[in-house]
Design brief:
The chain is mainly β. The chain is built from no helices and eleven strands. The strands form two sheets. Strands 2, 4, 5, 6, 9, 10 and 11 form a seven-stranded mixed beta sheet that branches. It has a four-stranded antiparallel beta sheet with strand order 1-3-8-7, with no helix packed on it.
């Protein structure tokens, strides 16, 4: 059974940092795209950052460029999201996602597996 388990969320003041982790089990995702999404109250889930399995190219939503960094440790089958200079508008539940094929239609679609989410709250 495939599982994605996020951790690292919490309450932080504006300007602070958090590092989210997503530990995968049940299969190896080193060659597959993975990503981070978030959903704020009353809003739709949105793509935040993604990383390819092969080649390792990355993509970010404009709102987090220069502040967030996505990375992966294939030996640990774990995905990370380093979040710096956090803003109150970053407050959301953050979800980890993984594809089950080498390619996906676009950065924000085509993911098959999802974690349960971790809450990030940024106070002003």
């Amino acid at each position: 059974q495939v599982q994605l388990v996020e951790s690292g969320g919490g309450l932080v003041q504006a300007g602070g940092s958090l590092r989210l982790s997503c530990a995968a089990s049940g299969r190896t995702f080193s060659n597959y795209p993975m990503g981070w999404f978030r959903q704020a109250p009353g809003k739709e889930r949105e793509f935040v950052a993604g990383i390819r399995g092969i080649g390792g190219s990355r993509n970010y939503v404009d709102a987090v460029k220069g502040r967030f960094t996505i990375s992966r440790d294939n030996a640990k089958n774990t995905l990370y999201l380093q979040m710096n200079s956090l803003k109150p508008e970053d407050t959301a539940v953050y979800y980890c996602a993984a594809a089950d094929s080498y390619t996906i239609p676009s950065w924000n679609t085509g993911y098959k597996y999802w974690g349960q989410g971790t809450q990030v709250t940024v106070s002003s």
